[in-house]
Amino acid sequence: MHFDLTPEEVMIRDAVRDFAEGVVAPNASKRDETGEVPFAIMQQMGSLGFFGIPFAEEWGGSGANTMSYALAVEEIGRVDASLGLGFAAHVSLGCSPLYYFGSDAQKRQFLEQAIKGVYLAAFGLTEPEAGSDAGGTQTKALREGEHYRLNGTKIFITNAGHAGYIVATARTDPASRKISSFIVPHDTAGVSVRCDYTKMGMRSSETCEIHFDDVVIPAEYRLGAEDKGFHQFLDILDGGRISIGALSVGVAEASLQASLAYANQRRQFGKALNEFQAIQFKLADMAMEVELARTMVHKAAWLKDRHRPYAKEAAMAKLYASEVAMRASSEAVQIHGGAGYMNDFPVERYMRDAKLLVIGEGTSEIQRMVIARYLLQEQNS
Amino acid sequence: MKILVMVKQVPDTATRIRVGGDGASIASDGIKWVINPYDEFAIEEALQIRERLHGEVVVVSVGPQRVEEAIRQTLAMGVDRGVHVKTDVALDSYQAAAALAAVARQETFDLILTGKQAVDDDAAQVGPLMSVLLEVPQVTVVLKLSINPDTQRLIAERELEGAIEVVELPYPAVITAQRGLNEPRYPTLPNIMKAKKKEIRVELLESLGIDVVPKVRITALTEPPARPVAKILTGDPLEAAEQLVNLLHHEAKVL
Ligand SMILES: Cc1cc2nc3c(=O)[nH]c(=O)nc-3n(C[C@H](O)[C@H](O)[C@H](O)COP(=O)(O)OP(=O)(O)OC[C@H]3O[C@@H](n4cnc5c(N)ncnc54)[C@H](O)[C@@H]3O)c2cc1C
Q1: Residue ranges of chain B with pLDDT lower than 50?
Q2: What's the pLDDT tens digit per position in A90-118?
Q3: What pLDDT shows up at residue B28?
């Protein structure tokens, strides 16, 4: 056992870090204020191969692995969590379903362009009546010969405004709870997308409501077999949790770095803040938790890269890292005092962004349920 | 078109440099090493030339084991292969130029590109010395380069104080790059993955027949004097401005 990254993983992390600091960081705070979605930056990320990190070269991927992908999401998230969320949602939720469950024809038609960054990809699971209980999908896809007719509403969908396609879950039989998933090209008649939520944080990530109003798509756009949608999205969410964990580590690391810098520079009672033990203890706890969270995210990524079961570890990584991001960003504001409450410093943004991490892709409560389910399964087997 | 790019690995400019125990070199522990920023312009230019005229771009770097990492980074940017002249000895500019020139003779070349200077010792000698050793023309501090493969000639714009000089010359030649020549690209991730499969040929310095006795020896290295603590003027803007003018006149003596 060892904890070293491979030389390629180090190079990928450093390359993404350079890009994050050079291109992403400069206007991150401004975008948080205006809510502008940096699509041009996302396209540049696509052309540099960021979106293809965990995918094979055969489909235009970069041929790296989940570990490298986690490192990349952390680096982007460290300077701009909103972009980190857009990145993670595009790759883990938008591209992965096609990569893992799509036919060659579907990959050729849709996935390659999403990996290149020609357009983004969105994952439409959540509905007004189906949130944590995502199996409660009400959207219907009724078979009509060689087509399906979709009707329903999806809410809180990341990247949908710039998405070339939406992977949407729907029920093919109104009488049963069985779910299937479909690739819905954004320009299909009857698809309407509105991205005008006003959000607390993650303000420059794109979040949209989607209406399917008699949307007719060819049967070839179904992803995998009929009724497999439930298992597919559980799998997709397992992978997505690693990326939300990595994003959380990024936010927590940024909170720690900002706190170290401020505590070194700010003086009260004739001393730098970092000379007070109360502040030192906060910094020590933050550093320890960031390290533990990162280690857990890397372990889950490592398991996935070895094709070993990783779902429990991914839930632990997501749960722990997101809660660390909450604590670290809140302590960062505390260490900055009143200044931290103002948007002259980025820490209040970190704190607002962190709250999404304990909600999106499964709330903390749902992660605990998932972990407990595995524990009980292991006990009974 | 075969282009050699000579690259030096230097301490990151953001790293705090401390003098080493011998008083004549820097302490190397804790240093983050990067590619000399001016060499990055040379790499980018070579890659752009290859995109237009085809051919091969080979990076050559002299130094200890850690230099391999810098070469790998250039391979990730798209360079075809690398040559690592391995040595643990710190070389002076002449020795470095001689080692690089020896590799250039082995490899043969149409163009040699390198940075106008390395940001560690700022000597700006290696480019010009190579041109002398290889008996080819050189242009330094280049801001713009165009190549005519039919006539085998180059047109280069060089930066002078307050002027741009345009020169024309035949190649093979040595070109040293100035900031502004281009905008170095970010490595693409597929190229990073491919970099590990590309060749880095290792050449031991001893096998190149270079004189290991330096012509220039660093006798001492000292840190710049510590900066005095900053004075912060607060209060009424008018009074603060008066105080500031006073300080600039009498303390800083810059007015
Ligand atoms: C910015 C943002 C981006 C998003 N992007 C996407 C996207 O791209 N695609 C997508 O499909 N969805 C997306 N979502 C939706 C997100 O996944 C859901 O909001 C989340 O899963 C929670 O569902 P809900 O909002 O319906 O909350 P609810 O399910 O209504 O939960 C409310 C509260 O009840 C708790 N709760 C629910 N059930 C239980 C239970 N059984 N036991 C204990 N507690 C429970 C929850 O933990 C939570 O605290 C996004 C959301 C946001 C805010």
Answers
A1: none
A2: 999 999 999 999 999 999 999 999 999 99
A3: 84
> What is the tens place of the pLDDT at every residue in A254-281?
999 999 999 999 999 999 999 999 999 9
Q: Which residues contact A84 (CB under 8 A, 6 or more apart)?
A: A73, A74, A76, A77, A78, A247, A250, A251
Measure the CA–CA gap between B60 and B98, rounded to whole angstroms.
13
**Ligand 1 probe mutation, A91, A92, A123, A126, most atoms within 8 A of CB:** A126
The mean pLDDT value for A288-315 works out to 98
pLDDT digits (tens, 9 = 90+) for B79-120: 999 999 999 988 999 999 999 999 999 999 999 999 999 999
Q: Which residues have CB under 8 Å from A138's CB, separation 6+?
A: A127, A129, A130, A152, A171
Inspect the interface and report whether the beta carbons of B188 and A18 lie closer than 8 Å. Answer: no
The interface pTM score, or ipTM, of the predicted complex is 0.84
More reliable by pLDDT, A234 or B13:
A234
- Distance from the Cα of A15 to chain B's closest Cα (Å) equals 7
d(CA A127, CA A124): 8
- Judge: domain B2-208, CATH 3.40.50.150: no
Catalytic residue among A144, A289, A361, A378: A361
Question: Taking the model in full, what pTM does it have?
Answer: 0.91
CB A222 within 8 A of CB A182: yes
CATH 3.40.50.620 boundaries in chain B: 2-208
Which residues contact ligand 1 via a Cβ below 6 A?
A 89, 93, 123-126, 131-132, 156-158, 202, 207, 356, 359-363, 365-366
What chain A holds in terms of domains, given with CATH numbers, is: 7-120 (1.10.540.10), 123-227 (2.40.110.10), 230-380 (1.20.140.10)
Any B CB within 8 A of A57 CB: yes
